[in-house]
Every structure is written in C-alpha cells, then in structure tokens.
Amino acid sequence: MTENDKAQIRDLGDEVYLIDTYMADYDGITAAYLIRSERPCLIETGTARSAPAVIKALSYLGVGPHDLATIVVTHIHLDHAGGVGDIAAAFPDAEIVVHERGAKHLADPKRLLASAGQIYGPVLEEVFGLLRPTDAARIQAVDEVDVIDLGGGRTLTSYHSPGHAKHHLGLLDSATGDLYVGDAAGLYMPETGTMKPATPPPDFDLDSSLRSLGLFRQLAPARLLFSHFGPARHTSDALERAAEELRLWVDAVRLSRATTPELEHAVAAVRDRTRARYADLAAMPDVDAKFEALNSTETNVAGILRWLDKTKG
User: Fold this and answer.
1) Could you count the other beta carbons within 10 Å of the beta carbon of residue 143?
2) Where do the Metallo-beta-lactamase domain residues begin and end (predicted)?
3) Which CATH number is 3-234 given?
C-alpha cells in the first residue's frame, strides 16, 4: 500500500477507522467507516467506482475476504450504497443491513438506477458507476429500531431517521457513543466547520428531518460521524446548527416561491441569504467547489420546492 493509499485511512480510536472513498476522485468528500470489532462492520460503501479503493483499505486494515461480518448503509443513495454489490461480492460472508424501504432496491437496483439516470443523465456511470445486485438472502431489512451485533458485547443500534430519505438510518455505537448520521444532519466541512443541508428530491421532508434531528439529540452521542465528511465532537451544537440551516433554506425558498415558482429565482435567494454565513467556505474555493459538486444548491432547492408543492407551501 502506498503512502497515498495510507492517507485514505484515519484511525479515530476504539477500533474505528474512517476510509476516504475518493468519490469522483475527490478526497475528503465521502467517507466509509470500519468498526474493527470482533465482528467487523463496514458502514457505507461509497459509490461502485469507489469499491476497489474501499476493498483495498479493508485489506490493509486486516479484514480478509471472510472476516467482514456486516455491511450497513445509512440509505441507498448511490454515494452511500452504490458499492454494496461489489463489496458484498468481495466479502461473501457479510450480511447487508439496510432499512426495509431500501432492501428491494439493493436486490434489484434497476428502478433505483433508472431514477438516478433521470437526475444525472450520461454522467451517472462516470461519477457513480453501476450498483450491482445483491443476493436478497444476504440482506437484513430493519425498520424503526434494531440492533446489530458487533461481537464482544458491542452493538450498533439503528434508528429510522427519515427526512433526507424515507429509507434513512442513524447508527449508534454502544462502545463509543459515536452516531453515524449519514445525510440526516446534512454536510459537515471540517476545513471550515461549515454545515449545509442535504435536501434533494424526491424524499425531502422538513418535519421528518427536524424530528430525526430531535431523536439524534435525545441519543446524546459523544461524536457525530458524517458521511460527508468526518467526525464532529460538539454534537449538540452541530445538531442544532443542522436544524437551523434547514429552517433557513426552507424559509428562503418559501419566500422566493411566493413571488415566482422558478428554480433559478429560489437558488439565487438561498445564495443571497447564506452568502455571509458561508463566507469562510467561499474563501476556500477548492473545498467549496467539491462539496457543491456533491451537493449542489440547485438540487437541494429543487427538493425543497418539491416538498413545498406537496405540502401546499
């Protein structure tokens, strides 16, 4: 393994490792996590294109083909679960855990890929690759609350946390108090401490999102582990900030929509409303650009507009 490959891995303590999936060749944008417990568990896989790098990192961390016990995805969006089929094939003894609303799409991803194709068009395969089917017999579907055995008395409890997606899970490690938040708390940019919401269509729902953030606060986690990107320790402040960002974006889009339903008008309104708020991020254009590529303002505003239309504003 080269020094560059080793830089892909960060030891977070207590046998928890962040693995940078190098989504679309960007570093520091999408993370998978290994809990190297008695029953090793991978949380998130990254895209299908990221799978070879993730498999290589697991091998470097001593996880052989028959060692990985569980693969868990917080939700089935392709930046989080696109590599499930490839990684499941490389680790044939691993059980795949997903919310019940997403299970059928991992077994038969045709509809999921068709939907993603409508959004991303010809760049779908270039950016994400294609999600391979997973044997349905290996998929464990969970609902509201469930427990995953990590061995040695250590567990990972899954909590249904919709709002970003109907099939979203938060995951709490009993040994560390780490809460894997997926996209339910939005994006965290460690370079500046900036947080932004993740509100894409078709599932975004403000009320569900705020309830999920309230649930996360009740869990009193020691640390938040963001899929985008990395650990945050000031958990109460971060969760409150996540809720604040959601309300601010929705308010800006709602006011814009009262004047015109045009997407471009709402995008401009959000950018104007948040310009000072995100000044530190704007001062780092490379960081700003890579997170915008992952989580564009246009896509998030489109999700909010869709929700407003469904709820009659």
Assistant:
1) 11
2) 29-228
3) 3.60.15.10
pLDDT tens for each residue of 225-253:
999 999 999 999 999 999 999 999 999 99
pLDDT in tens, 186-223: 999 999 999 999 999 999 999 999 999 999 999 999 99
CA–CA distance, 304 with 283 (Å, rounded to integer): 27
Kindly indicate the confidence band of residue 138, based on its pLDDT and cuts at 50, 70 and 90: very high
Nearest to 312 by CA among 258, 244, 245: 258
Q: Coil, strand or helix: which one is 300?
A: helix
Under a CB-based contact definition with an 8 Å cutoff, are residues 183 and 213 in contact? no
**Backbone angles phi and psi of 93, in degrees to 5:** -95, -5
Distance CA 212, CA 242 (A): 11
Structure tokens at 173: 């490690």
Cα 52 to its chain centre, rounded Å, is 19
224 burial via Cβ count (<10 Å: 0-12, 13-18, 19+): buried
Q: Would you say 156 and 173 are in contact if contact means Cβ atoms under 8 Å apart? A: yes
CB atoms within 10 A of CB 141: 17
Q: State the residue for tokens 């309830």.
A: 211
Check residue 195 and report its DSSP letter.
Answer: E
Residue 255: count other Cβ atoms within 10 Å of its Cβ: 12
Work out the mean pLDDT of the chain and round it to a whole number.
95
Q: Which of 80, 58, 70, 57 is nearest to 7 (CA)?
A: 57
Domain ranges of the chain: 3-234
Letter for the amino acid at 302? Answer: A
Contact of 173 with 135, CB cutoff 8 Å: no
**Bridge partners, 154 (sequence order):** 151
